[in-house]
Amino acid sequence: MHDIRVIRSDPAAFDAAMARRGFAPVSASILERDGIRRAGQTSLQEKQARRNALSKQIGEGKRKGADTAALEAEATALRTDMEGLESQAAAIDREVADMLAVLPNVLDADVPDGPDESANVVLKQVGTPRDLGFAPKQHFELGEVLGMMDFETAAKLSGSRFTLLRGKLARLERALAQFMLDLHTGEHGYEETIVPLMVNDAAMYGTGQLPKFAEDSFRTTDGRWLIATSEIPLTNTAGGEILAEKNLPRRMTALSECFRSEAGSAGRDTRGMLRQHQFRKVELVSIAQPDHSDAEHERMTSCAEKVLELLQLPYRRVVLSSGDTGFGAAKTFDLEVWLPGQQAWREISSCSNTRAFQARRMNARYRSADGKTVAHVHTLNGSGVAVGRALIAVMENYQQADGSIAVPQVLGRYMNGVTRIAKDS
């Protein structure tokens, strides 16, 4: 959500910021409605002052036995006018709020301009894609031959874009999730949290899924929403709160099921586990003091990178362009992991600083240490990382010529001594 005061102070700058997102100028229409609202507020205050004066005159007149009928009629008319102005103000407030609610966040100045992912900029690469010495297979080819990744049965149960894992591949997926949680809670200082998988409209609005992206989510028959990411409940824990500055940053992590309709993704990644209606992800969320959010963004991204480094997976950090940055983000770093089977870099984590955009929507604030200032916090979120995609990356990077999968050393204690996953093992 945007601060209307910022738009009033420099409408041209706001329009320029929205133009980077591909939006036509919007400040004039917003300020036109806002101007009517402010003029009405001035009139309301004037009428209130007149009504207060009339009240005194009527009281004095009655004490003296004077005829106050004309004064009372004027007061009644003023009250009717004031109720009309109050109703008009409320309607305009809703209208302006609706206009602002569908506008994306203002991008940071250093976000590269560009129409889509083609303009993203690689900031660094860690690790070199391995020469496996044979033609690598994609994860679904490996999983089906192992007999542990079953798309046909999943489709029978649920339809397309679902996967059923069995045996040691299921164990490997669980091991990855436990490893990530232990790392983020034990070494990175995030508080482990178990969150509801269904949330209400207010929570979806707070993090920006509503009203614009309703079609991307699944809704229950009683009006709740299945979460697309645990960012939604984690971030909304600060909604309506005034946090003490000394308690910031608040760092939280959660492993949760995530549900996405994948609206608009027809024909993309139709085979395998890359794009699913249901998947698991370890999410990282920080509620930060505004002056510290840049450093917190870097820290969060480094925490996600540590997962990939310990798994010894080649990856690169990318800063997203203006055309590829998500609705609520001011700046986003993506981590892309190398998939030998695809011979491509694919996203495995996305870490974003939304600054005060989400905080305004959910009214999440903090009180400064001296007690003199109450302001909106900054919120940040990132994948630490997507568990299913980590499984894909491990399978493809650790595949052996015979179709078996070596287990990364760091996962040994989570795999009960299993070092290799093979058919019928």
Description:
By secondary structure, the protein is an alpha+beta fold. The strands form five sheets. It has an eight-stranded mixed beta sheet with strand order 1-10-11-12-15-9-8-4. The chain has a three-stranded mixed beta sheet with strand order 7-13-14, with no helix packed on it. A hairpin with a 4-residue loop joins strand 11 and strand 12. Helix 3 packs antiparallel against helix 4, helix 5 packs across helix 12 and helix 7 packs across helix 12.
Question: What layout of secondary structure does this protein have?
Answer:
Layout (H helix, E strand, L loop, with lengths): L3 H6 L1 H9 L7 H37 L5 H33 L19 E6 L12 H8 L2 E2 H8 L5 E2 L1 H20 L4 E2 L5 E2 L1 H6 L18 E2 L4 H6 L5 E3 L5 E10 L18 E11 L4 H18 L4 E5 L11 E9 L4 E12 L1 H6 L2 E3 L6 E3 L1 E9 H11 L7 E2 L13 E2 L4
Parallel strand pairs: 4-8, 7-13
Antiparallel strand pairs: 1-10, 2-3, 5-6, 8-9, 9-15, 10-11, 11-12, 12-15, 13-14, 16-17
Strand content: 15-25%
Q: What is the structural class?
A: alpha+beta
Low-confidence stretches: none
Mean pLDDT: 96
**Structurally, how many domains make up the residues?**
2
Total beta strand runs: 17
Secondary structure tally, helices = 12
The CATH superfamily name of the largest domain is Bira Bifunctional Protein, Domain 2
Termini separation (Å)?
53 Å
SSE order, one letter for each helix or strand: HHHHEHEHEHEEHEHEEEHEEEHEEEHEE
Can you tell me the CATH class of the largest domain?
A: Alpha Beta
* Shape-level CATH architecture of the largest domain: 2-Layer Sandwich
Q: What Rg do the Cα atoms give?
A: 28 Å
Helix amount = 25-40%
**Sheet with the most strands: spatial strand order:** 1-10-11-12-15-9-8-4
CATH fold-type name of the largest domain: BirA Bifunctional Protein, domain 2
